[in-house]
Amino acid sequence: MENSKPLALILFFSAFVGIIVYVYTGKKRKQRLESYKDIPFLDDDELDPTQQKKQQVNNDESTGK
């Protein structure tokens, strides 16, 4: 119990450094997340045709057709 505070300090500092490294690295992740920013503003007509087919199948299954 005597060394619990320094151990907790090292543990939380390591977690903090890990989060900082995760946030500021990975350019591919940034590009991927930037591509997601306009999704709420897209119309249903602009969706991928395969995505529309999946939605149609799901709608048919839910209605029992």
How many alpha or pi helices?
A: 3
Query: What series of H and E elements makes up the topology?
Result: HHH
Strand content: under 5%
Biggest beta-sheet profile = none
Helix content: over 70%
Question: What number is the mean pLDDT?
Answer: 81
| Overall radius of gyration | 23 Å
Give the tally of β-strands.
0
Note the gap between the termini: 65 Å
Stretches where pLDDT falls below 50 for ≥5 residues?
A: none
Which descriptor suits the 3D outline? elongated
Structural class: mainly alpha
Structural overview:
By secondary structure, the chain is an all-alpha fold. 71% of the residues lie in helices and 0% in strands. The chain is built from 3 helices and no strands. It starts with a helix and ends with a helix.
Summarize, please.
Helix content is 71%, strand content 0%.
Secondary-structure map with pairings?
Blueprint: H1 4-24, H2 27-36, H3 49-63
Structural key phrases:
65 residues; mainly alpha; 3 helices; 71% helix; elongated
